[in-house]
Amino acid sequence: MSTEDQDIIIELKGIHKRYLLKQALTGIDLRIRRGSIVGLLGPNGSGKSTLLKLIAGMIYPTSGSIRVNGREPDVRNKSQIAYLPEIDNLYGWMTVTETLNFISGFYADWQADKAAEMLQTMELEGKQKVRSLSKGMRARLKLIAALSRKVPLVLLDEPFSGIDPSSRAKIIRSILSEFQSDEQTIVLSTHSVKESEPMFDDVVFLQNGWIKKFDSAENLRAAYGCSLENLWEKVYA
């Protein structure tokens, strides 16, 4: 394996994904660098969630190949991936502390000290019932659950969806403060381009299941002379 290949944590070749009559992804070729934060951008229905689920090994491609850390996604890979879905899968009757304790039981790589630290950063009280939390607070709790694991790959599907600006700012600050580029790679899908832009090393623009643009955030800004938020408007005009 070359040094260049060792620097790649995710590699997709010729990925197609079809659901009955709907083609979700068409001919996706993508190589994601180890130790980067990658923005996965696109309108609803562009294939972002499908792509993340494929990488996580939750679903399988209709055709094409996927390699995560050098092998096809399987049970062993899942232990190396923290996946935060867009849907809210928390139990309302649990407290915040009970929720984190429950989740920790599934993962040998759980970092209790990190979870406790992030509770303070995210301004959540351990005794609060999940059902009493606002949507933004629930989003922060889900993020704690994802980032408290010591894994090389973190997949975040719309972590800012429908939450207020102050919560978005807290989540972004927490992601940046907890990110360790020598140990971790983050792939994050979002519609909140303006707030998220400073995080991104590389950016993927998806449209109708195929990659319209993929480059470093720096190269894209230089090539088009505008922010990623403005580029979004040009790409999807």
TrEMBL record:
<feature type="domain" description="ABC transporter">
    <location>
        <begin position="10"/>
        <end position="233"/>
    </location>
</feature>
<dbReference type="InterPro" id="IPR027417">
    <property type="entry name" value="P-loop_NTPase"/>
</dbReference>
<dbReference type="Pfam" id="PF00005">
    <property type="entry name" value="ABC_tran"/>
</dbReference>
<keyword id="KW-0813">Transport</keyword>
<dbReference type="InterPro" id="IPR003593">
    <property type="entry name" value="AAA+_ATPase"/>
</dbReference>
<dbReference type="InterPro" id="IPR051782">
    <property type="entry name" value="ABC_Transporter_VariousFunc"/>
</dbReference>
<dbReference type="GO" id="GO:0016887">
    <property type="term" value="F:ATP hydrolysis activity"/>
</dbReference>
<dbReference type="GO" id="GO:0005524">
    <property type="term" value="F:ATP binding"/>
</dbReference>
<keyword id="KW-0547">Nucleotide-binding</keyword>
<dbReference type="InterPro" id="IPR017871">
    <property type="entry name" value="ABC_transporter-like_CS"/>
</dbReference>
<dbReference type="InterPro" id="IPR003439">
    <property type="entry name" value="ABC_transporter-like_ATP-bd"/>
</dbReference>
<keyword id="KW-0067">ATP-binding</keyword>
<protein>
    <submittedName>
        <fullName>ABC transporter ATP-binding protein</fullName>
    </submittedName>
</protein>
